[in-house]
Amino acid sequence: QVQLVESGGGLVQPGGSLRLSCVASASIFSIFHMGWYRQAPGKQRELVAAITSGERTNYTDSVKGRFTISRNTLKNTGYLQMNSLKLEDTAVYYCNAVFGKLDYWGQGTQVTVSS
């Protein structure tokens, strides 16, 4: 069983930046697709950004141009750089790694954007 551990969340003012990290307990990111999801109170979990094993990326429209997904396979770590944060970015952010039927989730990290 692979464990994913997120970190980097916190409280930030609108317009600020945060970088989330997702550390895997095994060397999976070279073959797994990785994604960052978020869930705000009362809302469904949504895909924010994803990166394939071939380094193709995609983003939900609301974060395009502000968020960047990346990963370092040598460090078994994925990242989500979040810039120009908005109030509506407030949510719990989850890291996900998928390969075939293997589907792993982290415990989530809270991001709160507030003035």
- The N- and C-terminal alpha carbons lie at a distance of 40 Å
Sheet with the most strands, sense and barrel status: 7 strands, mixed
User: What is the overall pLDDT average?
Assistant: 96
Oligomer: single chain
Protein model, in words:
The protein is built from no helices and 11 strands. The chain has strands at 4-7, 10-12, 18-24, 33-39, 46-51, 57-59, 67-72, 77-82, 91-99, 102-105, 109-113. 0% of the residues lie in helices and 52% in strands. It is mostly beta strands and 115 residues long.
State the main characteristics:
single chain, 115 residues, mainly beta, seven-stranded mixed beta sheet, 11 strands, 0% helix, globular
Per-chain topology:
Blueprint: E1 4-7, E2 10-12, E3 18-24, E4 33-39, E5 46-51, E6 57-59, E7 67-72, E8 77-82, E9 91-99, E10 102-105, E11 109-113
Parallel strand pairs: 2-11
Antiparallel strand pairs: 1-3, 3-8, 4-5, 4-9, 5-6, 7-8, 9-10, 9-11
